[in-house]
Amino acid sequence: MENALTVRNLKTQFFIYEGVVKAIDDVSFELKEGEVLGLVGETGCGKSVTAFSIMKLIPDPPGRIVNGEVFLGNLNIMKNVSKEARIIEGKRVKVKHFYSVIKKNEYFFNKIRGKYISMIFQEPMAALNPVYTVEDQIVETLILHNKTNMLKIIKAASEHMEELKGMLEKGELSYSGDDYLGKEIQRIREGNGGKESIKRHLELLIEEGSLYIRRKSKYESMLARSEELDKLEERLLSNITEEEQMEIINILSKETRKINLIRMSKQLKRKVRDALLLEARREALSLLESVEIPNAWGVLKLYPHELSGGMLQRVMISIALANNPKILIADEPTTALDVTVQAQILRLLRNLQDNLRTSIILITHDLGVIAETCNRVAVMYAGNIVETASTEELFMNPKHPYTIGLLQSIPRVDNPNKVLKSITGNVPNLLNPPAGCRFHPRCPFVFDKCRVEKPETIEVSPGHTVACHLFYGKGVN
Amino acid sequence: MKMYVYVIRRLILLIPVIIGVTLITFALSHANVSLLIAGYLGRVRTPQHIAIVKQELHLNLPVYEQYFYYLGNLFTGNWGYLAPTEVFDPGTPVVVEFQRRFPPTLELAVFATLLVFLMGLPLGVFSAVKKDRLTDQITRVIAMTGVSIPVFWFGLLILIAVGPNSILPMQLRLVGVGQIPPSYYYYPHSSILEPWVNTKVSGLTRPTGFLLIDTLLYGDWQAFLAGLYTLFWPSLSVAFTSFGLIVRFLRSSMLEVMNQDFIRTARSKGVPEYFVVRKHVRRNALGATTTVMGLFFAGLLGGVVVTETVFGWPGMGRWLFYAAIGGDMVSVMATTFVFTIVIVTANLIVDIIYSYLDPRVRLE
Amino acid sequence: MSTELAGSFSRSLRARYESFKKTFFFFTRSPIATIGLAVVIFYILVGIFGPMILGGNPWKTTQVFEYNGIYIYNVPQPPSLHFPFGTTFEGYNLFNGVVKAARIDLMVAAIVVFSGAIVGTLLGSIAGYKGGALGDVIMRVTDVFLSIPFLVLAIAFLVILGRNLTVMVVALVLIWWPTYTRIVRGQVLSVRELKYVEASVAAGASSFRTIFKHVIPNSIYPIFVQVSLDFGNVILTLAALFYLGVGFAGYYTPEWGNLIGLAASLGGGLPAITRYWWTVTIPGLAILILVVSLNLLGDGLRDVMDPRLRR
Asked: Of chain C's two ends, which shows fewer C-beta atoms within 10 Å, N or C?
């Protein structure tokens, strides 16, 4: 069974005035399907940068993903990174961007973001746009990624309009179905339902209907094309050759732009657009309910600043999971919340993961959260992954000196020793990181090789890897 | 908080400002009493006349009572008369003069503001999105030059280029009709706009006082287009010297917004970049820009005053100029007061728009 | 106690001075801002030394007359070797006029801007720090003054209170101080929340001392930036006031706006301006170049002092 996500040799650097910050240095890990992988480390070790690199959210000046491959299933989504910019190292490092290549890759990546890989962030209050309601922000992501469904709704609504027109012409208002048509009839009935209002509605329908009839063939061909593109997309994630992947990506990049639903929804006449929004709103409502928000209907209309941190985080989770992504990256989701809310959110994440079979990368600096929630853990230090293991194995049997130091520094109530242990030294400056193993200045077990050579990743037992010279030659393979 | 509650609160906050303004205008108008009296006297200045005027203007009463009379006059529309030293229409009541002078100024100010937004908003957005690239640098240079040009100088240069004595073909020139003061418009094809300007001669009435609207109401297309052309140049003069402020501010507020977290969230949802800018960034940045609007309008009206003088546009600015030269204090104070009220109103509108754009403000 | 205060104030100032030197070196990296600085310094030197070097009466120096059927008048001469900028109406030597105008404009602008800045800063610190009713009153007054268009208030003052230098300076200061009050108050409000200010107050420092030692040094940078921008605006307003004819000291005052206004009033309007274009263009260019340089300077200062924009 292939992994949900495979990251290989990811290298991200930031080119600033003072020099080059080597934020991520050759990071590789795997995320298996349905598991929760914890990414733990101190502030500044590069865990957030890793997440952003996977999602390609690194701001382009000054950052750059210099090298690496990221496989979604068996689809390499990080191809051509080196083609997007040329890095000239001379007196001062200069980065030349090839905007056309960047743009082309962007179109493809916009499909991936939000639909296959989603992300939730640390401070929910700052992460949501303050001038739009919760509803707006959820609906945005729904419309963006469910084009076929939306087009189908448009088509259905327009057909309903024809039906409605027919009914109104006959003066018959007895239909009472649950769908959009039923609601429309109900509205007409409530609005005194007399001859006058029927006539008015009829005129409105005729006017809007004519617009649809004119554009009908266009919408239908769009729907057909969209369904084709969906099928192509599905193929993309199955087991196909690289050439076919490239071909499909090319087609998708070009064609997706043409079906611009957001622009279209502005051109649609009111009745059809209402149908669209109704469906989207219903979906949003069920999403909010799935994240255990009480009074979901009221919350939809609120603005972010009117909600508490815990609620906002749930809203963010609902936005991230709206399109059933395969992978969810949670960047310190509970750091800004109270402990009680933290527990709720973590439990929620695990429930959702059970129901939706999403694979989660949980980024945190809190080992307690790791212990509670994760199946496997990867420990990061100064831009490198120093140890990976299952949670139990890591806590029981830590191998890397840094991990050992971390675990030892957790204060324990039953510790007779009153002095807290900590790791000596400071986190290195990534502008000029230490040579060799980046941890060597602080490592109690350091020897000569550590200062010179960067350690390889060695598998010391099945599923448990360490990047440390101490284990050289002691690997399983 | 609902919108209308916010609006009412803003209106209540308006009252102290208006009171403050009336205090200032009152203090100024009574600072130079001899000038005040001279405005009512004309050539005859015997002591008896002066005493009569003093009586009329309640100048013998204590200050605070004078203030109340002043306020009363302000609200009843009794704003005095144009001094005899005025160049145009001495002796008319000020309020009547307002009906004639206010619409052209409003027309010019609105047109200039439109131009500023047309020029400034897209440039501000481009400048921020393409930060530090060539478009950005050029835009900033143009915007800064604009703000550094003296308004009257720019107007004069325009007139040199497009005025009656320019080397451009006749169609493009603005030509004044005669040298008779009331019709001191510059416009192309004098015959077209003359009836609108010389209403006493042509007998046309001006229902709204706005040149563009009046010509439309009468269906006179040629005059409308000619009027548009005439209005364009002074508006450009005002707009070009003010839009740099908007560009600079919009750019910086957009850059600030683009660094915020929620932009990153939007990107992570897969929203394409142009849409991120259009939907998320712009709304937030525009909200911030409205805070600078008040200052902007104050400068704009100053530019309007000067431009009206240079181009001979018959609005309040030119009236203020001739009043200042002629020592007609009543007109000066009246125009100052109205200009201030205009800005206060503009600020109010801007605040309301801002609260619509950014719901957080309504909590205050 | 006051020597202590002065000591700490000067120490914090010295720290500012050190960082200022560093700022200066960053500043010179931007070529445009350096050009701005250079031009401004040039103008200042011209203003100080120019009139001394040139000396004498700027007008009535040419004697080229013409009779246009009505009267004999002095024809403006185009720029030539003898008259580098040419002459304007009434035989006014434009070069002399422009150079002497530098001194007047810069001096008046300096007085206005610095007075306005000082008054505004003081009022703003009080409003922000003390807050309460006094602060509210000050901010309302600021609102009122900001609602009056700049030029209009100045014109009103000059008409009513007489056209002399004092009135002009007072009017302009009244126009400009509100901006500083707003800025400083904003700064004070944010600095007030900082922990070290709280600590200082908790340790028993009086509010006066806190304001001087902590608040003002922190707000200096935005004030500097605003000063350099306001300089340009004051000069433009001055020129506009003189052009309109409400300036001080008579008809022939050497002031850039006045020189342009001469053409409009003495020369008889547009035909004269079109024919003798240099009388208008050259003083205007003098204004334009100075104000552009001031703005470049201000932009450069802002870019340098804004830590976010520094690469």
From this structure: N
Chain B residue numbers with beta carbons less than 8 Å from the beta carbon of A114 are 268-271
Q: What is the ipTM of this complex?
A: 0.82
* pLDDT value for A378: 92
- Nearest to residue C149, comparing CAs of A169, A168, B295, A15? B295
Residue with tokens 């039906």: A163
Picking from B31, B148, B151, the nearest residue to C160 by CB comes out as B31
Residues present in chain C in total: 311
Structural tokens at position C284: 């205007």
CA-CA distance, C116 to C169, in Å (whole number)? 10
Contact C288 B29 (CB under 8 A): no
CB atoms within 10 A of CB A86: 11
Instruction: Please spell the DSSP secondary structure of B76-120, one letter per residue.
Output: HT---B--TT-SSSTT-BHHHHHHHHHHHHHHHHHHHHHHHHHHH
DSSP letters, A281-318, are HHHHHHHHHHTT-SSHHHHHT--GGGS-HHHHHHHHHH
What's residue B179's pLDDT? 35
Residue B295 pLDDT exceeds 60: yes
Task: Please tell me the distance from the alpha carbon of residue C154 to that of residue C158, in angstroms, as a whole number.
Answer: 6
Q: Cβ separation of B35 and C160 shorter than 8 Å?
A: yes
Contacts of B324 in chain C (CB under 8 A): 155, 158-159, 244-246
Instruction: Please tell me the predicted confidence (pLDDT) of residue A72.
Output: 83
Distance CA C192, CA A138 (A): 39
Any bridge partners for residue C74, and if so which? Answer: C65
Which of A 2-41 lie inside 8 A of C, CB atoms?
16-17
- Which uninterrupted H or E stretch holds A364? strand A359-364
* A253 close to A104: Cβ distance less than 8 angstroms: yes
* pLDDT tens by residue, A310-345: 888 888 888 888 888 888 999 988 888 888 888 888
Per-residue model confidence as pLDDT tens digits over A259-313? 666 666 666 666 667 777 777 787 888 888 888 888 888 888 888 888 888 888 8
Confidence class of residue A3 from pLDDT cuts 50, 70 and 90? confident
| Interface size between A and C, measured as CB pairs under 8 A | 3
Contact A181, A205 (CB under 8 A): no
Distance, CA of C293 to CA of C285 (rounded, Å): 12
